[in-house]
Amino acid sequence: MNLVKPNFPARTSLAHLPTRIEHMDRLSAHLGGPKLLIKRDDQTGLALGGNKTRKLEFLVADALAQGKDHLITTGGPQSNHCRQTAAAAARRGLGCSLVLRGQAPGELDGNLLLDRLVGSELCWAGDRPPEQVMTETAEALKAAGRRPYIVLKGGSNSVGATGYVLAMREAMDQLAATGEMIDMMVVASSSAGTQAGMVLGAHVYGYRGRIMGISIDVPELDLKSLVTELAVSTAEFLGLDRPSLADRVEVNADYLGGGYGVLGDNERQAINLVARLEGIALDPVYTGRAMGGLLDMIAKGMFQANERVLFWHTGGTPALFAYGEDLLV
Description:
The chain has 329 residues and is of the alpha/beta class.
């Protein structure tokens, strides 16, 4: 365990914390495999919740400390990160511009509807790199007298990852209170911030189990490198000695399917099974894919029946409504 306490930066309260840890008894019995629990970060509360709210508590505080008055970020058309960023801006009285990949769809549904409801401006990148469009948007805002703050995709920098260092402390306190021992934590991983924060939090607070990131859209070695580098840079940002964390970073990229946001049988079956056995809604892009991967790993005998696995529900359920009947089996 790291004996030096992290020097946490300022944060602004946005999330409903702590989020619950629940037992998935019916799903566990159905699978006949390990005991499954779920950490409900889909219930953080900001515009229907999700994991990005923990990151935004620190990112928005950083923007406010710098005197910024407008947030800019980027993501896909059904980006959970963009929706939560827009809602955080509304909560704190900031403007918000969302640079979304591709072209505007014919209808506003799912996260897009919520983006508009909370007052964000939608900027479609088309065939251009979203990062370039973000830079141009920032320059235009500056010329108009605004003070923009760019939030990286997924909120995945050292400031944002700090939210999941503290999330690990929260989870470990909850587990200690019930005497529950967890062998593995499983989480959807893409822009690396959530998993990096968890890995560093495990190092700081003494979690000895494994943390498995199910890749959503990044090859295994690339994602492992991203998570490791961000976990180390976050440690340095928090005033900790540079830790060696590469051996703690586990990534499974066997479930990339048809690509980012492409719903396949893996996601469809996982979403339906969890909904029908536990009454919990997963999302089609992140948690559906990650849960599908976990279920496949269980089917392949990668866990003992007496092991305990904690699945982190990172949110994203508003995107369900953009997929409609394609979700049903």
